[in-house]
């Protein structure tokens, strides 16, 4: 399954990884289908590292009422890896982050649940407060 994050600067197409992170993918898809992510922003941009967003509070502390146990897997954090931020073990919620470069120090510490397969130029263009207008799920 794929998902398209339509943003105010273009679209990112994600390949979701249900075998590696089934609960994370299911939660993300459920929230996307409900329109939860529509209108949320990217609130943290670290140039050359990561773009983080989709926090309902806009500050990195919102969970959207979601609490996921870690699904640490063997998928490495390469450019375009999509993970869920957390504040400790088993505290992931509704947010996501996308890596700009390989970040091996994240491997084994966060759940990778998707990867960018199209829209790398959009990833590079993301900036603070860019809006996700909607998330579209593409089912096979």
Written overview of the protein:
The chain is mainly beta and 140 residues long. The chain has one domain: Cyclophilin (Beta Barrel). Helices cover 13% and strands 32% of the residues. The chain is built from two helices and eight strands, in the order ββαβββββαβ. It has helices at 22-33, 120-125, and strands at 2-7, 10-16, 42-46, 50-53, 81-84, 96-99, 111-118, 132-138. It has an eight-stranded antiparallel β-sheet with strand order 3-4-6-5-7-2-1-8. Strand 1 and strand 2 form a beta hairpin. It starts with a strand and ends with a strand. The mean pLDDT is 94.
Widest sheet: strand ordering: 3-4-6-5-7-2-1-8
Report the uncertain regions.
none
The count of domains is 1
Q: Return the CATH class.
A: Mainly Beta
Look at the helices and sheets and give the structural class.
Answer: mainly beta
Q: Please tell me the overall pLDDT.
A: 94
The secondary-structure element order is EEHEEEEEHE
CATH superfamily: Cyclophilin-like
Largest sheet: 8 strands, antiparallel
CATH fold topology? Cyclophilin
User: What percent of the residues sit in helical stretches (DSSP H or I)?
Assistant: 10-25%
* Overall morphology: globular
Question: Number of helix segments?
Answer: 2
Q: Count all strands and give the number.
A: 8
Span of the ends, CA to CA: 6 Å
